[in-house]
Design goal:
This protein has 129 residues and is of the alpha+beta class. The chain has one domain: Beta Barrel (OB fold (Dihydrolipoamide Acetyltransferase, E2P)). It is 19% helix and 35% strand.
Length: 129
């Protein structure tokens, strides 16, 4: 089940607001995405201090099956990446909603959150896929 404290994209990323006052959010990929990818072996993340753009490519994730693009659910400045994934990319498979998070971002346009979908909507979307 997808955690209800997050919002989702139809490209299978999730976003969780960590601090609404500072517009700080955490981003990762969904359990559905990691299951489709298979064993993750490498992740290419944006650099700290770089700007990500709403629904633009922000990196790549490589598994034993494929290389897939990562898309940013929002626009903003990357303030932290999960450096643990460089040595242990399998955390994305093992715990995509917690230990396998990808980056933290300061949202530049909180209105973009309106384009994301709820856990229930995402569940329905994946069941139709």
């Amino acid at each position: 089940m997808n955690p209800s404290d997050r919002q989702y994209t139809k490209e299978h990323e999730w976003l969780k607001i960590q601090d609404a006052d500072s517009n700080l959010a955490i981003v990762g990929i969904t359990d559905y995405a990691q299951a489709q990818l298979g064993d993750v072996v490498f992740i290419d993340m944006p650099e700290i201090g770089s700007t990500v753009v709403h629904m633009d490519k922000m990196g790549e994730i490589e598994s034993v099956k494929a290389v897939s693009d990562l898309f940013s659910p929002v626009s903003g400045e990357v303030i932290k990446t999960n450096s643990e994934l460089l040595d242990r990319p399998e955390l994305i498979n093992e715990d995509p909603y917690n230990e396998g998070w990808i980056l933290q971002v300061i949202l530049s346009d909180p209105e973009e959150l309106n384009s994301l979908i709820s856990a229930e909507e995402y569940q329905s979307f994946t069941e139709q896929a």
